[in-house]
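Suppose a classmate hands you a notebook page containing two proteins, each written out with its sequence and a corresponding row of structure tokens. How would you begin to make sense of it? This section walks through that situation. The first entry is reproduced here exactly as it would appear on such a page.
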Amino acid sequence: MNKAELRKKYKKLRLALSEEKIEELSLKIANNLLNLPVWEASFYHLFLSIAEQKEVNTEFLLHILQGKDKNIVLSKTDIKNNQLEHILLTDSTVIRKNRWNIPEPEAGIPITPQQIEVVFVPLLAFDENGHRIGYGKGFYDNFLKECNDNVVKIGLSFFNTEIEITEIFSSDVPLDYCVTPTKIYDFNK
């Protein structure tokens, strides 16, 4: 399927999920993440869920990272430049929703993409080759290109893989893993 068809399909599938189902599936995803070989790193980039888009609830993952005393990095959207700014989450970080309902830090300690070792990537769909589609603005692809070559990219999805996403561009950055409620997909093999 092409990207436009997949966006439509998966937005519809997500919108059909109840809040209770989202919580249940998000907890399963967080528990599956514990089986990945990524917990020795120090800097983890986490997206905060857009509840209105019925995204995977990353609050469970946030608690895991805090419990492991990891440095958690959040993004602030720079719409004008199609870029993300990266801010270290601290006890004094103020989170507010922007005009697109994306929860983001207002300000804080900047972190460079090269400092980040693991990135949890939002997505709508992914395929057997680790290619993903998001909302189509390229924020995460732009960000991931700025990271070091060893950064681990982990998608989070309520749904299993598609066979293939057509219309893959050279600017699309593939995932290393994608974690669902029932499976871990490893694209490094």
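The notebook's second entry, a different protein, reads as follows.
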Amino acid sequence: MKSEVLQKLARYCAYQERCVWEIQVKMESLAVLPEDQTPYQEWLEDNNYLNQERFAKLFVRSKFNQKSWGRNKIKFELKRLQVKDSLIQKALEELLDLPYEATLESMLKDKFQQVKDPNEWSKKQKCYQYAMRKGFEADLISMYMQQLK
């Protein structure tokens, strides 16, 4: 293992939480051959620079708190980052401690007020689509949509 590559990877992980896929992409940019990547990854894990579970839990909390993403969008993004399904399920449990439904409700109310459309059905449709793009579940959205006036 080259110490300068290891130092760059450690700095990269120390800056913010990373997943294994991001580390692999970084190693490719540093010209580390695929067959030589395992020792670097193991060193990062052994020295607590890289932890998939910690990354997944932080990702869930931050995307919900900062961007108001729902379960579906968070799950999709974690799969895109090649996080294991078991870790995704464990990380999504973080949403149980957060005001998930209250956030959806206030987001729908705010969007309903913002949409400039005289037709109420059309207005609700736009709010519904907005919440779907944010990754919330259809049945939950429908439940809160009935309360909009």
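A careful reader of the second entry would note: The chain has a mean pLDDT of 94.
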